[in-house]
Amino acid sequence: MLNSRSLATKRAVSAVIAVAAVALAWFGYSQWQDYSLGRRLILASPDSIPSQPELVAWSERAGNNAYAKNCASCHGADMKGNQHGVPNLSDATWLYDYGRVSDIERTILYGIRAGLGKSHNVTDMPAIGRQKVLDEQEIRDVMAFVMSINARKRQVDPAAVERGSKIFQDKGVCYDCHSRDATGISDYGAPNLTDDDWLYGGDEKAIYSSIYDGRHGLCPAWIGKLSFATIRALAVYIHSHSKESPESPNNRTAGVAPSGGQAG
Amino acid sequence: MVDATVHEARRSEPVLGPIAEVNPRRSLILFAIGAALGLTIAGFGLFTAAGTKISGVPAEDVALINGRHILRSDFITQVQIETAQPFDKTTKAQRQKVLNEMVDEELLVQRGLEVDLAASDPDVRMAEVNGVQLQVDADVLAQQPSDEQLKAYYDAHKDKYAAEGIMALRDLVIKPDDNTTAEQAKQKAMQAAAAFRKGDGGDDVAATYSLKDSGKLDRGDLFDFAVRIKLSPALYAAAQKLSNHQASDPIEENGELHVLLMDKRQAPPERSFAEARDAVLQDFKKDEQTRVENANLTYLKSKADVQLAPEFRQ
Questions:
Q1: Which of B287, B285, B279, B275 is nearest to B160 (CA)?
Q2: B278:A113 CB<8 A
Q3: A179 neighbors A236 (Cβ within 8 angstroms)
Q4: What pTM value is reported for the model?
Q5: Is the ipTM of this complex over 0.85?
């Protein structure tokens, strides 16, 4: 009797050990898979990753977690940002560069005006009114000009538009960042003023405020805070939920018409 | 014969023997498997942890120069910048050229540190100072203060968020001299102010009471900031208190008596918190930045051995 009980106990222990060994082996295997996929992700050329389904799938999982923890508080769970300067990540409008995986990764690594030498920080929108570069009337004229060329159609005084156009191209030096045709320059993070894509709402008050007080949008740098594999996965994740700019070198060969970036 | 039979029987048993029986060999084998597994997991963790110093190049780097990393991401960006092409379309030779340049640059940077360039080159010093300040400021810049914090800041600094007012102001002066005692000059100045308050024009007042224009202010409408630049703080403070057609009491400054006559005053319009929010955010961050920069310097001084010449010791 005692022997048969002892035998049963030993069998049960053996079974538990076997299950634990299998679980451990499975855990080890999945960790190894995870590690090797993360490594493959880092070693891959970033802009080639979207054509590698296995890496995209891994990034979707890892990127989703990292996005929810670190990015959603500003950009929103739906990636659509807000009208207080946080850009929409789900469209084809990019303030900096073109929305390729390598571009997004760069922004995540070093941030925007995040205090690192490699951050996107070539320029700010200066406080043109506050610094007395333009007076009140001139600011109103530039506003009229911007509203006249913008896709959101509004009633504006033609005389003010003409004066504003001259100020834009001359005294205000607005063209220097926004370009002569006001379509923006993504190297500077200077938005397109001709589309209806606005970072700060795009109503008259917001435009006035942008010109009078300037803008200084920020995104933190994540280098040193997240692993390189996580940063790459986040970049792929965001890329797969957005669209590259029509101006992206990847789209140029496809013959897509160019556009620009988000404005105030 | 018996020994041979037993030996044969043992050989035919499985290596680990029946699971229900105690088997020293099985214990040893399981122990060895466990130890090997443990060592594998520990080794994996040890050699793949971020920052682990190993002889190979980590996956996130393209090169290690004396232990310093050249990041793959930086390399890709550099290749794209130099070739103006997507990385995938660049040739191996182009990539190699960029990598060589980056390695050279890293070597020169390390040499610069070795010979302590910052000690002799003002540009390097300035770059290091700016770099450290930027690092200190990074968290402040990236931080998003709450609306409550901004509102409290706005309430404490309301003056800053008024738009510029406009004033048409005359600054008349009279100086005591051989013909006019200080007391007489003061009397004239007070009479001039009273006459202006009654409705006399500025030019008439000046002519009647022998006051001269100080020449500091242009005639006509001026923004408050323009008046602030041109007048002394005391005179500007007095001007700010005046409304339309008011005159100040005589103000003595540098041996002269000034009388300020306000022809026209358009008070600075106050901006609500909602209107000024963006400016408040910028100022809030700027103040925070100054605070953390000062705190950083205080901390650095507290742990540094700073010795000053006797005449500068406090």
A1: B279
A2: no
A3: no
A4: 0.63
A5: no
